Every structure is written in C-alpha cells, then in structure tokens.
Amino acid sequence: MKKALIILAAGFGSRLTPLTLLTPKALLKIDKQERNFLDKMLEYIPDDDSIDIYIVTGYKKSLFTPIISKYNMTEILNSKYSQTNSIISVYEATKKIDLNKYDAFYIAPSDCYLNENVFNKNTNFSWVNTVDSYSPNKEWNIVKRKDNKTIKSFKIGKNNENYSEFITGISYFKTSDFIILSRTIKQMLVENYKKNSNLYWEDALSKTLNSINLRTYNLSGRLLEIDTIDELIEFNPEVKSIKDNPHFNLIKKVFGINLTKIKNMKPVKAGMTNDSFTFEINDKVYIYRIPGLGSDKLINRENEFNTYKTTANLPNREILIHYEQNKDNGLETYGAKIALFHDNHRTVNPKNWSEVTKALQAIKIFHENKYNASYEFDVIERMTYYKSLILNKSVLTKTIELEHKLIKIYDKIKDRDKYLIHVDFICDNVLIDNDNDIRIIDWEYSGTGDKYFDLSAWCLYSYYSRKQCDKLLKIYLNGKIKKEDRRVFYSYIAIQGYLWYLWSIFKEEQNLFFSDYKETMLGYGKEYTEILENEFD
Question: Could you give the CA distance from residue 411 to residue 390 in angstroms, rounded to a whole number?
C-alpha cells in the first residue's frame, strides 16, 4: 500500500514569536533530547519506502534543506505563504502530486509532537486525529452523527460552547476522499480566491462531510500541539531555544527576573516595519518591539532613541520602559523597545471623526512644542536612498517623469520651518481608550520636517479621498485654511505617496508583500501631482 505524507511547514508560526523570528516553528528544538517537531514526527516513518514525504515550505525555506535531505523529502514551495493560509499549501501540494499514484494520503501540521505511531495504521476509512476537550476552546470542535463514529460537522468553538473532542494533529484520507477534498479546495479558490485563500484547509474539509465518511482517531495523552510560548515552557522549562533567545534574555535583564516570571506571551499583529509581542510580569502587561527584517537599512536607531529622550515629557506619548541601544549585546536586540502596553486602548478608527479629532489635537500639541533635533527626515534623500536599496532597478523606469515633477514640487516648499515630527503618524500608531486618553507610539522614523508631512501620512495610510483629506486639514487648522496651507499639504501627499511606493518595493524584495498598499501609494503620488499642476501652478 503506497501512501503520501504532506507536511505543512510554510507558515511563520506567529504565536511562537520571538522564537520563530530566527527559526521556523517546525525546526524548533523543543524536547529534552533537543529534537525538533519534524524529527519527532518522522521517527515513526517506516524504512520500507511505503510512504513518500512531501513538505510544503515558504517562510525561511532554505533552513529546511538539511532535514529535507535527511528524510529524502520532496519540497513544494508555497510562495504566497505570507498572504494566504494553509488552504493554499494543500492546494499547491495537490497540483504537484500525482494523486492516482497513491492509495492514501496523510496531511500533517509541522507542529504536533507525537507519542504514538499513526503511520502504521491501515484502515478502510478516512480519519482525523482528535483529543478530548474539557473546556470551551477555539479549536476545530466536532459533532458526530448518531452512529457516534463519523463526523457530522466541526467548527471553531466559542467561549460558551462545550464539545467532547477537537481536531488536532494528523489526518488520513483514502485517495477517493482526498480527491474530493482537492476538488473542493480548487472550487473554493475559483469561486472567491481573495477571500478563500485566507482560510484553513480544514474549512474545505468541513464542506466535504456529506460526501465522505470521516471518523476520529483519538490521541488524548499521546499527542501534543504546542502553539504558544507558555505551552512550550510548560512542556519543557529547560528548552534551549528559549534559554538562548536574546529577546527573552533582555527581558530578564531589564526586569531582574527569571524566565518563569514572564507570563502570557502573545504576538501582536506584525507591523510593516517590526514585529511585536506582549507579555505580563506581576500582572502588568508590556509590549516588546523587535526590529523587523531589513529595518536596519531603513531606521537610524540612535535617532529614534534621541527622539524618545527629547519627548520624555510629552503627555500623549507611550510610556517607555527600556530602549536597547547597546550593540555589544547583539544586533538581534539593538533597537529593541519595551513599553507599557496600554491594554485598555485601541487604535484610532480613521473613519470616526471624533477619534480623529482627538488624535489631531495630540499631534498638534507635539508640533507646537517645536522640538529641535539634529537629525532631519529629508524626504528627497530618503527617496534616493530607498531607490539605492531596490535590486530590480527596471521597476523605477516607469516613474522617472513623476519623480522629476515631485522634486520640483518639493523645491517650492523645502525652505519652510522644520521641527521634530513623527513622520509615521498613522492610525495604527495612535491609541485611544474609552476616556479619550491618546497615546502616540512608534517614533522610529521621526526627524525634523514639516508638520504637514504628519498630516499627509495619516491621510495616505487611511486611504482618504480628497474630500476626507480636506476635512482633516480643516480640523487641524480649526477651520482657518489658506491656499498656501492646502498647497503644502497636497504637496506632501504627492511626495510621500511616491516615497512609500519606493519603500514598499524594497520591502517586497525582502519577501514582505504590500502589493495593494504599494499601488495605492503610487496612485496618490500621481493624483495629487496632477491636482497641484492643474489648480496651484
């Protein structure tokens, strides 16, 4: 009986941040024998060539090369891993594998720790691994049919729902059932790729339950899926990947504690420049900002630190606990930042004009302080620099004429007064709570510049229409708008749109994808250049 094992290892494993910044989740050494997830799972694979192993990679794919060679695996690339979910990994596998070559298929996540051999079971039915459920959870909880054997349905659980089992671990399919699954996936992607490509492959499986008889293979006590840092520490308090991690070591040093005092580590949605996670110490929540891939080329961390010193008494700034400025502690932590996490706050909604007004009042207080700094955010210099970072210079040829126009536009406004500005003043960097307390965070791009640069940044990131841009300017200036104010404001929308277009080309070359953002920014550059030419020249 010939079988195929498909291992899904393309994803980032964000819930194990910061460990996965250096190592894909599947390759983390987690047990006392210093075995990783894959080694532990694949020790059960028989030596008789009865199972062909396929592994779908994406994030840090080059690090899988040794283990692929060790187990004679066939690699399948999911190049869209950062934009999609596991349904695409399974889809890529079904495209590359001759389905009729095999009698059965396994689908395995790369993060389950097996203590039982599931690969030596020859059954005439398809099954999924489950474990017993003892409390409400947000896993794939199942409902069985009246025969108490086959699965009728499954769904992500809610806090007030109780189920007896939930799906985790490895799944096994007869070829006929796997073909039904593969066709269902293809149909879902044809119907609505943008929406359905962000689903889990189990979402497709749930749609096949009227066509296949799917049973459970319960592995309670013999299967462990480790999703979080807390779960990993509980499993193995001496895990080397945590003890040697520079970010955890910095936290221990700053707070003078041992690892067991750090609780409830959770990833924060990755930003465009950095990654972050929250953690608790003595019931206080903090946020740890990790400089992202390529940020060393974009950010001057010394300037950022100086901004935090300069604005120390600004009432609406985040509360900084520590800024790591010592390169001797390792480049991994240089520029790392620990701040109090404002857990009762949320990001400002750019469509809620009451919240926007509060944000504008806060940034206006900052502008009116007229802080001086020795470092300038020179937008033309940044354009030139971002262009130098772009490897594929041919992409720049289509915007040469636009760039020449923007330089002329800037020449008309470059001699205005400049003071310290935020530069990245966007809704994601302004927090508000129910009492309208405002906190402006993440000052890494800051430097001297024109206050209208901050206002244009808000408009661009919020994808505002011209009417909305005008409304924002009117609020900031208390309704007293001169033509010159509007001209300078529009100029920075045009210039900054093109600047972030160049920035996002560089980030794409780092395999960080912002395609919609990139084209939208270029659109602003073109639109407001045309407005300035037609209405202000």
Answer: 25
Q: Which domain holds residue 368?
A: 345-535
Residue 131 lies in a domain: yes
Domain assignment present for residue 230? The answer is: no
Whether 339 and 321 have beta carbons less than 8 Å apart is answered as yes
Neighbours of 240 (CB within 10 A): 13
Distance CA 457, CA 387 (A): 20
Tell me the H-state helices in 311-450: 353-369, 379-389, 400-411
Sheet architecture: strand order including 263-268: 263-268, 274-281, 284-291, 337-340, 320-323
- The string of pLDDT tens digits covering residues 90-140 is 999 999 999 999 999 999 999 889 999 999 988 999 999 999 877 766 788
Alpha carbons 167 and 14: distance in angstroms, whole number: 20
Single out the residue in 197, 225, 253 at which a domain terminates: 225
Residue 238 lies in a domain: no
Pairing of the two strands 104-109 and 3-9: parallel
* Token pair 């070359």 in the structure block, residue: 509
Length reported for the chain: 537
Side-chain-side CA neighbours of 303 within 13 Å: the count stands at: 20
Cβ-contact 18, 9 below 8 angstroms: no
Closest CA to 456 of 530, 374, 378, 524: 524
As for how many domains the chain has, the answer is 3
Asked whether 252 and 243 are in contact (CB, 8 A), the reply is no
Entry pTM: 0.74
| CATH classification of the domain holding 526 | 3.90.1200.10
220 plus 253 within the same structural domain = no
What type of residue is 518?
Answer: K
